[in-house]
Amino acid sequence: MAKSRYEYVKQFELDDSALPGTWMVVRIDGRGFHGFTDMHKFEKPNDLRAIHLMNRAALEVVGNIRDIIIAYGQSDEYSFVLPASSTLYSRRISKITSTIVSLFASNYTMHWAEYFPDTKLLVPPCFDARLVCYPTQRILRDYLSWRQADCHINNLYNTTFWAIVHSGKSEQEAEEKLRGTFSKDKNEILYSDFNINYNTLDAVYRKGSVIIRQETEVKSVSQKSGEEVIRLKRLPTVLHDDIIGNEFWKKHPELLV
Ligand code: ATP
Ligand code: ATP
Ligand code: MG
Ligand code: MG
Ligand code: MG
Ligand code: MG
């Protein structure tokens, strides 16, 4: 196509390619979800429907963008990891970030009604996103450990906070009771006041969600013979494993190459 005399403005688009040979992590986070969760009457501390919807949107992103090797989600955030060798969109930061966040938000919206059949979506959900490059495996693992530790700290606080509120105290009273407490104090309050052993709560709440591609048996019917055949396919799968310790990484050595 002939070039117009306006074509020169293209030169103003600066190069924003991510540093080569580094892990790229895109983290998306719900905008104003404190209000969003109130407005849609999410159960507190954890609305399982909302966790499943976040996971569904993330599964669609991982299924759509083949370069993503692992994703980790908790609360209203999800991190998507692209390996150092990835050449997706020539590693252009804005292109990668905007594609991932837009896919996530549209899937969250598109699948809302499957997870919230009785709750009308009142405002368009919105997510921000950033891309950060991490130079080594160790730092990448520390990044993921940081997010899972954050999940643990917030979930322990929220679980205790809402147990106090649901027992008839005001939110202000609950906040005062928890001010300055350590983890062991919250565990103790949960155990002695509410008979809750924190460590036995479902891992989906304590550990958040990890998505990796796992070999999964997929059944289909052969068109030729009409017989049922079982194939192994690598499908994005949600786990609630600990990713801070070494065990997970020993079990999945392919993730860090
Ligand atoms: P910002 O726009 O700065 O991110 P925010 O209001 O989204 O502001 P966050 O720190 O991201 O602030 O907090 C997310 C909020 O969403 C928290 O209040 C958290 O409790 C709530 N939330 C996220 N997921 C769930 C869930 N599954 N069930 C109940 N509440 C949830
Ligand atoms: P990329 O992902 O690289 O952007 P693309 O297929 O979106 O690939 P574009 O150059 O953005 O490529 O082209 C947009 C396409 O959408 C064109 O084929 C254009 O004709 C089509 N299109 C956009 N708007 C309309 C419309 N209102 N009616 C019909 N076709 C449209
Ligand atoms: Mg925030
Ligand atoms: Mg948020
Ligand atoms: Mg958040
Ligand atoms: Mg286009």
From TrEMBL:
Residue positions binding Mg(2+) 1: D29, G30, D76
Main enzyme class: transferase
Keywords associated with the record: GTP-binding, Magnesium, Metal-binding, Nucleotide-binding, Nucleotidyltransferase, Transferase, tRNA processing
Binding site for Mg(2+) 2: D29, D76
Binding-site positions, GTP: S75, D76
Cofactor(s) required, per the database record: Mg(2+)
Reactions the enzyme catalyzes: a 5'-end ribonucleotide-tRNA(His) + GTP + ATP + H2O = a 5'-end phospho-guanosine-ribonucleotide-tRNA(His) + AMP + 2 diphosphate + H(+)
Residue intervals of the tRNAHis guanylyltransferase catalytic domain: 6-135
Ranges of residues in domain Thg1 C-terminal: 139-244
EC number(s) recorded for this UniProt protein: 2.7.7.79
Cofactor note: Binds 2 magnesium ions per subunit.
A GO biological-process term: tRNA modification
One function term, GO molecular function aspect: tRNA guanylyltransferase activity
Gene3D superfamilies on file: 3.30.70.3000
Stretch forming the signal peptide: none
Entry's family note: Belongs to the tRNA(His) guanylyltransferase family.
Function: Adds a GMP to the 5'-end of tRNA(His) after transcription and RNase P cleavage.
Name the record gives this protein: tRNA(His) guanylyltransferase
Species name: Umbelopsis ramanniana AG
